[in-house]
Amino acid sequence: MAPPVLRSGILKIAPYVGGEAHAPGAGRLARLASNEGAFGPSPRAVAAYQAAAAEIHRYPDGASRVLVEALAERHDVDPRLIVCGNGSDEILHLLALAYAGPGDEVLYSAHGFLVYPIAARSVGAMPVAVAERNLVADVDALLAEVTSRTRILYLANPNNPTGSYLPEAALMRLHAGLPENVLLVIDAAYAEFVSADDYVTGQDLAVEASNVVMTRTFSKVYALGGLRLGWAVGPAAVIDGLHRIRGPFNINSAAQAAGVAALDDTAFIGAAVLHNHQARQWLAERLGALGLVVYPSEGNFLLVSFEGWADPEQVRQYLKAQGILVRQMTAYGLPQCLRITIGRTDELEWLVDALSVYPR
Ligand SMILES: *Cc1c(COP(=O)(O)O)cnc(C)c1O
Q1: CA of 357 to the centre of ligand 1 (A)
Q2: Which of 127, 62, 57, 67 is CA-nearest to residue 92?
Q3: Which atom of ligand 1 is nearest to the CA of 228?
Q4: How confident is the model at residue 126 (pLDDT cuts 50, 70, 90)?
Q5: Which residue among 243, 264, 285 closes a domain?
Q6: Is residue 243 exposed (0-12), middle (13-18) or buried (19+ Cβ within 10 Å)?
Q7: Where are the beta strands (DSSP E) in the chain?
Q8: Atom 11 of ligand 1 has which residue's CA nearest to it?
Q9: From ligand 1's centre to the CA of 113, what distance in Å?
Q10: Model-level pTM?
Q11: How far is the CA of 290 from the centre of ligand 1 (A)?
């Protein structure tokens, strides 16, 4: 007999490699590789997490009731249309499990978030990468790739790692052009950071349409990536399906408590968003002044092209040797680029100083 055989497609998954977190030999560290919160978590979230410690022998509330109510109130949406996930990654995977399988196709834009093709392949479906235009999702190209086998279209808005976004009108046009049986998943992980005034999260569409889900996360502006907490809004039928297949206790009790506290700390979030706007603009200007190409970004990161400037991998190693960690972009098909998270001001000044004296 032969050993058990992995389902087809699984070995085609290029394992997701996260941003680096260590720089051996370096003293000081600036972790700008994973789009984490610049200021660490809200002290109120930390206090709630610690307070939950004495009760960790208890199973969590499987429905995450308090958290769902808090989200519903903050975002003005019916709590019955919300589901929480162990990170929004879990929700992206559950959607693939619920709606796609062998023989089906899953669309995403070519430089979209890498979890989408992984989720598609993990259920045996075929991920279809659709070319972008100047690193922006191309509505017409996406719609042109829809076939009778298409089940899901994943769109990060704004997108990681490009930082680009589709304005409301383009998003509506994308939805209007999709057959009703294709699920549009709008991944709004960076929604809080957007400054463009023609942006919408997609929540209204997710409430009104029968084939739209919007996913959100506590990993970015709420700075709780280590706890794994995300949520989604969608049609009752979709949310019902996700509840049926999710783990019965998918959100641990500490994450539920910290999530509620983080949501409450509006001053902390406001300060994080304000810093991001100012520092993002400052960093883009400084990098531009060094002769680098910086793509416009609505997220808490900048995509920077080193083409004609220096070899990005050598630049990344040079920064890493000093303790500054930024993200490699080869897995995203952007080998000429690095992605830099908007960290604290002192970290960004350090980065700019280091690049200013890069020996090229
Ligand atoms: C970071 C990120 C997420 C969030 O993932 P979590 O599992 O909630 O930590 C989702 N989508 C995109 C595009 C991201 O960059």
Answers
A1: 33
A2: 127
A3: 9
A4: very high
A5: 264
A6: middle
A7: 30-32, 82-85, 105-109, 126-130, 150-156, 183-187, 212-217, 230-233, 293-294, 301-305, 324-328, 337-341
A8: 189
A9: 8
A10: 0.97
A11: 30
Q: What is the DSSP string of 153-220?
A: EEEESS-TTT-----HHHHHHHHHHS-TTSEEEEE-TTGGG---TT---SHHHHHHSSSEEEEEESSS
Give the position, in ligand 1's atom list, of the atom nearest the Cα of 219. 9
| Rounded Cα–Cα distance for residues 345 and 225 (Å) | 21
Could you identify the atom of ligand 1 that is nearest to the CA of residue 159? 13
Count of CB atoms situated within 10 Å of the CB of 168: 17
* Shared-domain flag, residues 232 and 350: no
Same domain, 218 and 339: no
Same domain, 206 and 63: yes
Question: Is the predicted pLDDT of residue 184 greater than 90, yes or no?
Answer: yes
User: Residue length, the chain?
Assistant: 360
- 19 C-alpha to center of ligand 1: Å? 13
